[in-house]
Amino acid sequence: MLVFAFLATWVGGCAGIPLLPTTLFYAPLAENEEPDASAWTSLLAAAPAVSDASSPEGSASVVASERLEGGEWLAWTATRTLDPSRVEGALVRARQTALGLEAQAVGVHVGPAIRVTLRCFRVDRTRVVVVESSESERSIERSAWVYIERDATLSAAQLGDGATLLPIHRDSVLALDGRWDRARTVTATLEGSRDALVVHEHATEREVARDHPEIPPRAVREVDRDRRLVIDGVRLVGDRASLFDEP
After folding, report:
1. Element (H or E) spanning 158, and its range?
2. Which of 93, 108, 135, 177 has a CA between 20 and 30 Å from the CA of residue 99?
3. Strand, coil or helix: what is 82?
4. For residue 212, what is the DSSP state?
5. Which of 92, 115, 216, 213 is nearest to 168 (CA)?
6. Rounded to whole angstroms, what are the CA distances from 195 to 15, 90, 127, 135, 192?
7. Nearest-angstrom CA–CA distance, 92 and 73
8. Is 84 left (phi over 0), alpha (psi -120 to 50) or beta?
9. What is the pLDDT of residues 46-100, one digit of tens each?
10. Which is it for strands 166-175 and 142-150: parallel, antiparallel or unpaired?
């Protein structure tokens, strides 16, 4: 398969505003053909948003890709390994057309490349891309990074406290009096709504015998909470505290 990329027409903005493409770039691809690593590499080779994340060889491996509705794709390609579990690379939303694979928005994502999932939500007229992954091969802790699409660029969202990720799964154990511990698990799922990104959180607390796990818990508590994260530029402003922040 012959795959190549070319830049489309570029337009200038006001002073101090980076140039943005009216239409991004293509990699010719049959309409019924799924893009492989070489297609993504060629497509992203000319992307100014990811030039700093390019590998010396100019190649990339596909960490994860997801087919969306309407012939669209999400992909995260690794171009640089920062440590054994964390990589850097281009995050792209593309559309498959009769001309080939057409990039719609690009950004750079850095995070663990372990059990990665990609999703795209609509919040009013804004597209929101979410990258979710595990902390390590042995860990069940998961986190999500949120990217807000503006003018063909995927920008990392910041939470109100300056954090750049949303916890998705956390486990903790707190020693209580005597021989009892409080085991706590908090999980979250994300959903797009008309005016906010909704985080559905669930917490389960069990008071368990420290040295005798076979003994039934002496207390069990479950809590559900929905949080609304409103988009303000590249910030996500929450309407209430998170269950993840409770002790």
Report:
1. strand 158-159
2. 108
3. strand
4. -
5. 115
6. 32, 28, 12, 30, 8
7. 8
8. alpha
9. 555 444 444 444 556 889 989 998 889 999 988 888 888 789 988 999 888 877 7
10. antiparallel
